[in-house]
C-alpha cells in the first residue's frame, strides 16, 4: 500500500494592520494547530475524518476535502486514481485560524505530491483561493497563502503572483486562545462598515505601508507600535465576549499587542518571550473561555508552510 501524510498549518488572516491582505503561518509546539491529511491507495476508496473537531464536518460533496479533490481531479491530464483520504481535523470550524484553508491546502498540496508535482505552487495557491472563496463567499488569499507557503504573506491580487513573503521578527511569540464559539467569515464580514471616510482609508493604508517598511528595515519598535487595532477590528470586537477584559489583562501582563485572528473568535497577543506567551495565553483562556473545546496555546511564525510529514 502506498500512502503519504501531509500537514497544512493554521494561519492568522486579517493580520492586525492588513485586513484581507496580510496573513501569518503558525508553528506550535504545545498543540497540533493545523490539519493532517493521509492519502493512500487503500481499498475501498473513500473519506474519513478523525480528531477533536471532526464531528462538525459534513461527509457529502460539501466536505472540503471531497470538494477539493474533485477540483484537483478536473485539472489532471491523466486518469485520476481511486484514493482514500483520512483527515485529522485539529482546527475548529469558524475559529479564525484558517480551518477551511488548512483542509483545502492539505488536499491540494497532498494530491500534488501524490501525482509527482504536476502543478506549480502558484497554481495550487490560486486554486486554494478559488475553493476558499466558494466556501466563505469571497475569494481571499490571506489564509491559504501562509498555510501553503509559510511565513508572513502580503496579498496583492493585481500582480501576476498574488502573494509576497514579508520578513518578520524571529524573537516574537504568539499567545492564542480559541473561546469555543463559532464565527463564520460571512457573518463577520456582514458587520463591517460598507464604506470609510477618505481620511480613514488613507490612515489604514499608511499604517500597513509603514509596518511593511519596518519589517524590511528590521525595526522592531516601529513595527510593534503600528500593530494596534483599527476600526475594522473594532467593529468585530462585540462578537467576542469579554474581548476588552482579555485585551486589558494581556497588555498589563506585558504583551505588545492584542487582536482578533481572522474573523474570530480566536484572539492572539504578541509577546517577547515564550514564557510570557504561555502566561498570557492561560490568562486569555480564563477570560475568554465559553465552551468545553476552548483552548490556549503558543506559537511562532512558521516559515515552511505545507509539508510532507511521512510517506511510504
Automatic annotation (TrEMBL):
Q: Does the keyword tRNA-binding belong to this entry?
A: no
Residue ranges of every copy of the GHMP kinase C-terminal domain listed in the record: 214-287
The species this protein belongs to is Pleionea mediterranea
Residues annotated as binding ATP are 92-102
Record's protein name: Homoserine kinase
The UniProt entry, under Pfam families, shows: GHMP_kinases_C, GHMP_kinases_N
Keyword ATP-binding present in the record's keywords: the answer is yes
User: Could you tell me which PANTHER family the record lists for this protein?
Assistant: HOMOSERINE KINASE, HOMOSERINE/4-DIPHOSPHOCYTIDYL-2-C-METHYL-D-ERYTHRITOL KINASE
Please provide the record's keywords in A-Z order. Answer: Amino-acid biosynthesis, ATP-binding, Cytoplasm, Kinase, Nucleotide-binding, Threonine biosynthesis, Transferase
